[in-house]
Design goal:
The chain is of the alpha/beta class and 385 residues long. Helices cover 42% and strands 11% of the residues. The longest helix is centred in the middle third of the chain and has 20 residues.
């Protein structure tokens, strides 16, 4: 039976049950979930890059739902299929209109997740204190260590970047909450956090000093996004059909597809580049007779847009940004964020080269180039107006 291409589903169970294409990343996930002693991970990637689907996959894995993984790499490995208690949070979409509104929304959301997991809630103590108690309760009640998955840890902070004082207060609330992971190490089997932005220092990286950052790890450079080989093995028939719709010889079509949607390199130690998975789904799903931007259609990154309400983008050649240190790619001070770090972390720039401890950055592909040019014109007009 022909597999469908899901264009807006980021839930592993639904993809598998509906017979949709799932690009198999379970061999890489296996290497993470079986590294006992190294169980606390973080990875950052731009928006719309598969982070939510990865956490959904991990949730099904740790629920021991082997039937969903039939035919995938991990099903053929020596993974022990057990069910663990899971606390799965997604901090995107929380209301940050004011700090008070955020605090109420955050508290209500955490309460909802904990109660749904079968935990008790105490209205007289803080959200992070309830989180602390929930981890202990689940371990004692289930007799197994807890799995904690946190998606978009930075989303509330990013949504408030047009008000630095509010963003700092929100970030502190999230850090205090995540700090309970370190306080309960003996009761936690595995933890994975994702985000767009690496906020350092005074962030989760100092609070959770046992956190392993996979963001630039060469072994996991292709954990999110599609390689050329994955594209061929999963979408060959769809690409050939699309090439016919566009009236292009197949090799010419592949070259154009690569120019439009490939080009993201996430590790200085690996030259492998990947395609944006959402761009592939939204291109090969409808198979329109043209290539078109998918980036802006799925929404520009909230971190960058909120940042740009208070700052301008530098006028420079973004095709070739040389002499960038790794620390310059992180966001260290919310009051002095550099445009290059924001553009890099939000996917408008990527690694092109790495020599002598310095990066050369550039625009990954054509659809990003078009959107970045649009942003540059928009904010140039704002300055001129």
């Amino acid at each position: 039976m022909e597999q469908k291409i899901a264009q807006s589903v980021y839930d592993f169970r639904k993809l598998r049950e509906d017979g949709c294409i799932y690009v198999d990343k379970t061999a890489l996930l296996y290497s993470l979930v079986t590294r006992y002693g190294d169980a606390f991970y973080f990875i950052s990637r731009p928006e719309h890059f598969g982070k939510t689907l990865m956490l959904s996959t991990l949730e099904c894995l740790f629920r021991g739902e082997r039937e969903l993984f039939k035919g995938l790499a991990i099903d053929k490995m020596d993974y022990v299929w057990e069910s663990y208690p899971i606390l799965h949070f997604n901090f995107s979409g929380l209301n940050v209109e004011t700090l008070e509104v955020f605090e109420i929304d955050f508290r209500n959301y955490v309460k909802k997740v904990l109660i749904e997991a079968g935990c008790k809630w105490d209205d007289t103590i803080s959200s992070h204190a309830n989180f602390d108690r929930a981890i202990y309760f689940l371990k004692q009640n289930r007799g197994k260590s807890v799995v904690i998955l946190i998606d978009d840890y930075d989303a509330p902070t990013n949504a408030a970047l047009n008000d630095v004082a509010k963003a700092k207060a929100i970030r502190s609330e999230v850090i205090n909450f995540c700090g309970e992971i370190k306080n309960n190490v003996s009761d936690i089997h595995f933890s994975m956090m994702t985000g767009v932005t690496r906020y350092v220092p005074d962030s989760i990286f100092s609070t959770l000093n046992n956190l392993i950052d996979l963001t630039m790890a060469s072994r996991y450079a292709t954990l999110l996004g599609y390689t050329e080989e994955e594209l061929e093995s999963n979408f060959d028939e769809d690409m050939r059909e699309h090439a016919q719709v566009m009236g292009l010889p197949y090799e010419d079509y592949r070259a154009e597809l690569r120019r439009w949607y490939n080009g993201y390199r996430f590790s200085p130690d690996s030259e492998t580049c990947v395609y944006n998975p959402v761009a592939i789904a939204k291109t090969l799903g409808p198979k329109e007779p043209t290539f078109a931007p998918t980036w802006s259609k799925t929404g520009r990154p909230s971190a960058l847009i909120n940042y740009l309400t208070m700052h301008d983008i530098e006028t420079r050649d973004y095709e070739n940004v040389c002499g960038i240190s790794e620390s310059a790619l992180d966001v260290c001070d919310l009051e002095a964020i550099k445009p290059v770090s924001m553009l890099y972390q939000n996917g408008y720039l990527t690694i092109k080269d790495f020599k002598y401890s310095f990066f050369t950055l550039g625009i990954p592909n054509e659809e990003v180039r078009l959107d970045l040019n649009s942003l540059l014109l928009q904010y140039a007009a704002r300055r001129g107006g």
